[in-house]
Amino acid sequence: MRILMTISLLLAVTASKADTFVSDTVMKHADNVASYFMTRYPDVGADSYVDGKKRNSRIWTRSVFYEGLLNIYREQPKEEWLKYAEDWGRFHKWISSSDSEARNANADYQCCGQAYLQMYMMKPSETVRMEHIKMRIDQMTATGKTDYWSWIDAIQMSMPVFALLGDITHDGIYWQRMYELYQFTRNRHGGSKKGGGKPLFNTATGLWYRDYQYDPPYRDLTEPDKDCYWSRGNGWVYMALVRVMQFTPETEPHRTEYINDFLLMSSGLLGCQRADGSWNVSLAAPTNYGQPGSEGPEMTGTSLFVGGMAYGVRTGLLDSATYMPAIRKGWEAMRRAVHDDTGFVGYLQGTGAKPEDGGVITYNSIPNFEDFGYGCWLWGAAEVHALAKKLESSASGIKETKDSGNTYDGYYYDLTGRRVSSPVKGNIYIHRKHAVIF
Fold it and tell me: What percent of the chain has pLDDT over 70?
């Protein structure tokens, strides 16, 4: 109650301004962004040919787009969004990787499993949606190895798959192995070589080095007195921690540790935010904008940070008085990056591993891969929408009356699409195809 009162006061202070932090506005922009991408890429099975290399459409870059699309679908269940995702899964026959792609359990080829499993949870009778990715993760788990995630991007690509499988099967082995893999990457994958025994997570700053190559003595190239903390790499971990918390129960024995790392990251990220609400490609170096010609803001990291903070405030993990100003500024930065006439998102960094990778970043620049950047933006917007919806409902005192009928649309579903037999007062659910406060 105290949190909601604080939030209401914050809303009242800003009510006199032209406020875009309202759920309808957030959804309008999200709809525009999703429409841009789906119109530009109507063939869900089309291969990409970036830098002359052929890649299929279930690789990690496209898979992240579907994470974002399904997250915004949670907020507004539009049939065309789900159809676009289901058509993609069906095209690939819900296969996560070929035998050669699965070699060494590369997380890049596991990422699509997150969307597959979320769509399985919406239609549990279609077991084909989860069988293949479960088989691949079972193969990985059976080796007993814990050093697979040698770069922090892999935490986001693979870790939530384990959480989802634990949630679906109620088999604790997935949560336990997930924890072991995460701990190895967190505490031992740094150093002069892979598995060199140094942490990739700097608990003093709350920020992550991308992999063993960027552990000290490596320094930021623009400000060599600073460590190098790549924005999107930290965004991947931040996003992963949120998704893991969404799909692990309160009773999971390591959940508190994930929360603690989320809180450390939140504090560290808060101190790196730019005055315009965005974040740089290099978190500790305010003057490093990436490649020469880049304009400053960067939206893949920004979207993930704003979304993660919005989740934290909505769930009570983060103090609203501390983080709401950052979320509001961050959402404004996300909104300003969108070209209103088309839904094109500017300031997206292309693929890479460090701040200087991925090409020049401007309001009009097109990255080498567009898909994952749009997924990051939609994922963050969905969390902003969920928070805005909750604030609006709390401030207005609107209550949703439970439907007493037994039709399909009368049921309540949680934010992952699962039917809820006993809704909890104050929680957000999907009801009659709308996100509502019970």
Answer: 87
Q: Is the dihedral of CA 132, 137, 143, 145 positive or negative?
A: positive
Cα–Cα distance measured from residue 194 to residue 188, given in angstroms and rounded to the nearest whole number? 9
> How confident is the model at residue 1, as a pLDDT?
38
Q: Give dist(CA 114, CA 109) in Å, integer.
A: 11
Could you give the C-alpha distances from 128 to 90, 94, 119, 125, in angstroms and in order? 10, 7, 11, 9
Whole-angstrom distance, CA of residue 197 vs CA of residue 189: 6
Nearest of 78, 167, 79 to residue 121 by alpha carbon? 167
How far is Cα 417 from Cα 185, in angstroms, rounded to an integer?
31
Q: In Å, what is the CA distance from 325 to each residue of 21, 28, 235, 310?
A: 11, 22, 19, 11
Helix axes of 153-169 and 112-122: crossing angle, nearest 10 degrees: 30
Other Cβ atoms closer than 10 A to 397: 6
User: At 51, which amino acid appears?
Assistant: D
pLDDT tens digits for 61-98?
999 999 999 999 999 999 999 999 999 999 999 999 99
Cα separation, 414 vs 425, in Å, equals 13
Q: Which residues contact 371 (CB under 8 A, 6 or more apart)?
A: 37, 41, 61, 62, 64, 65
Q: Which of 391, 397, 396, 426 is nearest to 7 (CA)?
A: 391
**Residues 6+ positions from 13 with CB-CB distance below 8 Å:** none
Asked which of 20-24, 110-114, 173-177 is least confident by mean pLDDT, the reply is 20-24
Residue-wise pLDDT tens digits, 188-198: 999 999 999 99
Residue 241: half-sphere exposure toward Cβ, Cα within 13 Å = 29
